[in-house]
Amino acid sequence: MVCRNLLIALVLLVSAWPVQAQLRIFACEPEWAALVRELVPNARITTATSYLQDPHYIEARPSLIAAVRAADLAVCTGASLEAGWLPVLLQRASNPAIQAGRPGLFFAADHARLHASHEHVDRSMGDVHPEGNPHVHLAPDEVPEIVQALAQRLAGIAPEAAPGVHGRYLRWRAGWNRLRTEWRARAQALEGASVVVQHTGFSYLLEWLGVRVIADLEPKPGLPPSASHLSELLAVPELAGANAILIASHQNPRPAYWLAEQTGLAVITVPGTVTDNPETASLEGLISAIISRIELTVAGAAHGSL
């Protein structure tokens, strides 16, 4: 009888605990979905883009509109990266919680120090972001600040989940700091290396590693490589000492391979964001993999991709 009463009391106690509703998150890019999952593992996350897509150019599909309408929080890059499609989603979804200036809309770029800002921008400059380079998810020193702000925002939206979010954030940050120390040690062997790129997607990480960018396959940011521009690159003096051509998985590889044929440079193709491959399914794994690919190429490995 005592055991039965204890069981009933336990059931009543458990039923009295507040039930944590499953948070619904809309992530503009996979890197933010991965980081939300670190903080709230049971969240329902809809991701608008994949590593095989250019995040500048996404169609505002009905499924994405529905996801924004149902979301508790939208996590995006900001700094005009999604300017071509996110405003349409927000307008059509009509979710009052997810609008500019409201807690339900989180822009990672608002919590980071961006490079290459511009006071004046016009069409002649190409796809230039006045706020600065938005591809800050590959900045080892800025990501922790973004995740800290994201954890605070999540805790504010779901106070009942705050203790768990805070604990997972502390564990994540400790792991990130350990890896950042490892990356910094590995960067010593890469300092002075140089690459050709296509767009500025890897700029933060390359600068952090001490790897120089000597040329860009794009004639202007966001403009596809042209035959005339590629021919002009052959006259860049630093090209002779470059180590590789670095491009993202979503980019057309033909310009890179054309230049490789003319120069003998290796082509490194890596994801620009996290993927569904276990090796690069987290931001930590992605950065580690990119560094490994550059290390192998600098050491003399041939063409390859992740």
UniProtKB/TrEMBL annotation:
Annotated GO biological process: metal ion transport
An example molecular function term from Gene Ontology annotations: metal ion binding
Signal peptide residues on this chain, from the entry's feature table: 1-21
Domain of life the protein comes from: Bacteria
InterPro entries: Bact_metal-bind_prot9, ZnuA-like
The UniProt record lists the keyword Manganese: no
SUPFAM superfamilies documented for this protein: Helical backbone' metal receptor
Keywords linked to the UniProt accession: Signal
PANTHER family the UniProt entry points to: ADHESION PROTEIN, HIGH-AFFINITY ZINC UPTAKE SYSTEM PROTEIN ZNUA-RELATED
Name by which UniProt lists this protein: Zinc ABC transporter substrate-binding protein
Organism: Marinobacter fuscus
Lineage: Bacteria, Pseudomonadati, Pseudomonadota, Gammaproteobacteria, Pseudomonadales
